[in-house]
Amino acid sequence: MELISFGQYVLHLSLDSGDTFSIACPFRFDSSDHLQESSIQEFPLQASNIPRVLGAVVQAADAEADGTLRLDFANGDTLIAYANETGYEAYTLSVDGKEHVV
Length: 102
Description:
- The strands form two sheets. The chain has a five-stranded antiparallel β-sheet, with no helix packed on it. The chain has a four-stranded antiparallel β-sheet with strand order 4-7-6-5, with no helix packed on it.
- The radius of gyration is 13 Å and the shape is globular.
- The chain has strands spanning 3-6, 11-14, 20-23, 27-31, 58-63, 69-73, 77-81, 91-95, 98-101.
- It is mainly beta and 102 residues long.
- It is 0% helix and 41% strand.
């Protein structure tokens, strides 16, 4: 993870490869062993510990049929973006020059 930036209703993650991930939906973020106990975060964010993934590599990514996306980082943290609300854009992925909007 090279860069993390926040807007009032969006979180932008930029990877060293140039790929980007922008989240505008509720999400859960914590270490993998504490993820289920952590609260779901919604915008506007009051605080976040997500900057600790700076420098970490995304080891795995998994998307479910309902659009929920899970990213596992090399430092042991996990981010889950819940894209199960209809009527607005939940997140955008830009991978290898192709944009994917969910």
